[in-house]
Design a protein that fits this description.
Layout lengths: L9 E3 L14 E3 L7 H6 L7 H6 L10 H14 L7 H15 L2 H9 L1 H11 L7 H15 L3 H8 L11 H10 L5 H14 L3 H9 L2 H10 L6 H18 L3 H6 L8 H13 L10
Antiparallel strand pairs: 1-2
Length: 285
C-alpha cells in the first residue's frame, strides 16, 4: 500500500538467491513511489506548519471591484468643486455614492476624503441654488457612509470643529430641524444622519446641548407635515432614534410586542428626556 496515494501496488516475488530467506508467498505488496509520482504530487496536502498557513493569502472576495472604482471616481468628479455642477448631475452622482457607501470599504474611503466630506457638508445646507432632492441625497450618502462604521465616523468628524470648520454635519442637521423644514424625505434623512453621528459620544453630547431632544419632541408632536403617511414615516424615524439612544435595553427586552412603540410610548420618552435637566447620558443600544 502506498500511503501517500492509497494505491495498492504489487509484483511477483523473486526469492533471494544468496543468503536470504525465501518468501513463501507468491505475491508481495511493495512500495513503489517512483511509479506513481504524479499521483502522489496531486494528492499531496499543503504544509501544515503555522508559518506556511500564515503565508497563505486570505480566501475571501474583494470588497470592491474595478466597476465600483470607476463609479466612485466618476461620482466624486461630479460632486467636488468647481461649483458649475448641475443639480441633475449631482443627484445621479450622490445616488451612486450612497449605493457604494453601504460597503465598509467605500464608506471609509468616502470619509477619508477631506474635500469630498466638506462638499457633502455644504450640500446639506439650505443654499438657494441647491435643490431639496440634492440636499436629501447628500444627507443620505453621508449618513450611510458613517452608519455602523466607527472608523469612517471618526475620519469624517476629524475634518470639523477647527478654526476653518467650526461646525459639522450635526449642526447642519439640527439647523434643518429647527428652521421649520417641512419636506418629509429630507427630515427623514436628517434624522437618520443624526442617528449615525450620535454613535460618537461627543456628538451625542452636542445633540443634547443644542436642544436636539426638544426639536425631536416638537417635530413628533406637530401636524405640519403634509399627508398622514409621510408624517408617520418621520415619526417612525424619531421612534427609532429614541429606541437607539434613550431607552435602556432591559426595558426593550421586557416588551413582548414591539408594535407598542407608538405615539404615546415615544412621546413619554421624549418628554422625560426633555424634562430631565441633569444631563442624561444618551447611550447607543
Amino acid at each position: 500500500m502506498n500511503l501517500a496515494t492509497g494505491v495498492k501496488e504489487a509484483r511477483l516475488n523473486v526469492p533471494e538467491l544468496e543468503g536470504g530467506n525465501d518468501v513463501p508467498s507468491a505475491l508481495t505488496i511493495i512500495d513503489s513511489p517512483s511509479v506513481h509520482k504524479e499521483a502522489s504530487e496531486k494528492n499531496q496536502r499543503p504544509p501544515a506548519d503555522e508559518e506556511a498557513i500564515q503565508a497563505e493569502p486570505p480566501l475571501r472576495p474583494s470588497d470592491y471591484s474595478i466597476a465600483d472604482s470607476t463609479l466612485y471616481a466618476s461620482s466624486i468628479l461630479a460632486i467636488k468643486p468647481p461649483p458649475t455642477r448641475k443639480n441633475e448631475n449631482l443627484s445621479t452622482a450622490l445616488s451612486n455614492l450612497e449605493d457604494l457607501a453601504h460597503s465598509y470599504h467605500w464608506g471609509l474611503t468616502i470619509a477619508k476624503d477631506e474635500i469630498l466630506i466638506h462638499e457633502l457638508y455644504r450640500l446639506l445646507l439650505p443654499v438657494e441654488d441647491i435643490s431639496i432632492q440634492v440636499r436629501s441625497l447628500a444627507t443620505l450618502a453621508l449618513g450611510t457612509a458613517i452608519h455602523n462604521n466607527e472608523a469612517a465616523l471618526n475620519a469624517a468628524l476629524s475634518y470639523f470643529y477647527n478654526d476653518e470648520w467650526p461646525e459639522g454635519p450635526l449642526e447642519a442637521a439640527i439647523s434643518a430641524l429647527s428652521t421649520g423644514e417641512k419636506e418629509p424625505l429630507l427630515l427623514n434623512r436628517m434624522i437618520f444622519l443624526l442617528s449615525s453621528l450620535c454613535r460618537d459620544s461627543g456628538q451625542r453630547r452636542a445633540f443634547f446641548d443644542r436642544n436636539g431632544i426638544g426639536l425631536l419632541l416638537e417635530l413628533y408632536s406637530l401636524d405640519f407635515i403634509p399627508g398622514d403617511r409621510e408624517k408617520e414615516k418621520v415619526r417612525r424615524k424619531i421612534t427609532n432614534f429614541v429606541v437607539d439612544y434613550m431607552v435602556p435595553s432591559n426595558e426593550l427586552d421586557k416588551m413582548e410586542d414591539q408594535t407598542d412603540l407608538g405615539y404615546q410610548w415615544t412621546m413619554k420618552h421624549l418628554q422625560y428626556a426633555q424634562d430631565e435637566r441633569q444631563r442624561i447620558v444618551l447611550q447607543p443600544q
